[in-house]
Write a structure and sequence with these properties.
This protein is an alpha+beta fold. Helices cover 43% and strands 14% of the residues. It has 2 domains: 48 residues; 213 residues, Muramoyl-pentapeptide Carboxypeptidase, domain 2. Strands 6-7-9-8 form a 4-stranded antiparallel β-sheet. Strands 1-10 form a two-stranded parallel ribbon. Strand 2 and strand 3 form a beta hairpin. The longest helix has 47 residues.
């Protein structure tokens, strides 16, 4: 009888020990799962607050559809996304000034020698920096009114036909030049012309690599034609501000792609 009790006691103790070990193992596994979930939540939280990809709502297009056209209502927005999908209609900037830089057409005081004040100041700083680095840049075409854009498109259509014309010239209301934030830039080495070869020359290369430091982006890069809807234009630079330009440059994005990634604050 004593032997039976002793054996039963041993079995009970062994069973209790085994149950305790299993319980500890389950608790440990639960802790690991909880910790793993906490790590995932922490990573997600970190991604959500990436300051480079957070943007105030005022910088997004505020759109109203008019006769089937997406009309931008906050056209003075420095980040306005103006392209073949979004129009600023007959918008005219109120703060146009003539930047103190060299122009390919000399000192003529004409419409295309103007830009919005903030962009003009940034252009002046960029040209000064370029000169210090042995680069001579010339502004070629800045602000362009709705009426002027229409005349250019009509002339291009008459010259090459509508299908080819719209690949190079924007419809009136859909041109970045009308925002007063864009400038076509050239150099004496290119005989002051706007050609793709500018992108291969030292002047064009310097501009492409340093424009973001002054708030400008190469608006229509090579290889992004399907995104922008326009042919490669190594001479067309758009002002968006230093912070945004730096993010776009670092990620090799277009303005369209930038808005695909940023989140509203």
């Amino acid at each position: 009888m004593k032997t039976t009790i002793t054996i039963a006691s041993v079995l009970l103790l062994l069973g209790g020990c085994s149950w305790g070990q299993n319980n500890d193992s389950i608790t440990s596994s639960e802790n690991k799962v909880t910790q793993s979930q906490n790590n995932i939540n922490s990573n997600q939280k970190h991604q959500q607050v990436d300051p480079d990809l957070m943007l105030e709502s005022k910088f997004f297009n505020q759109v109203k559809i008019v006769n089937g056209v997406n009309m931008i209502e906050n056209s003075s927005n420095v980040l306005s996304l103006v392209n073949k999908q979004y129009s600023i209609g007959s918008y005219e900037p109120k703060d146009l000034v003539r930047p103190k830089v060299q122009f390919s057409f000399g000192n003529q005081d004409i419409e295309k020698s103007y830009m919005r004040k903030e962009a003009a100041t940034a252009l002046e700083n960029m040209f000064k920096s370029a000169e210090k680095n042995g680069i001579q840049l010339f502004a070629s075409s800045g602000y362009r009114s709705y009426e002027r854009q229409k005349a250019l498109l009509d002339a291009e259509i008459a010259n090459v036909g509508k299908q080819k014309a719209v690949q190079a010239v924007a419809n009136p209301g859909q041109s970045e030049h009308q925002t007063g934030l864009a400038m076509d830039i050239t150099s004496e080495s290119e005989n002051f012309l706007l050609t793709e070869n500018f992108g291969k020359h030292k002047d064009g290369i310097w501009l492409r690599e340093h424009a973001h430091e002054f708030g400008f982006i190469l608006r229509y890069p090579k290889g992004k034609e399907k995104v922008t809807g326009y042919e490669y234009e190594p001479w067309h630079f758009r002002y968006v501000g230093k912070k945004h330009a730096s993010v776009i440059y670092k990620n090799d994005w277009t303005l369209e792609e930038y808005f695909q990634h940023v989140k509203k604050m």
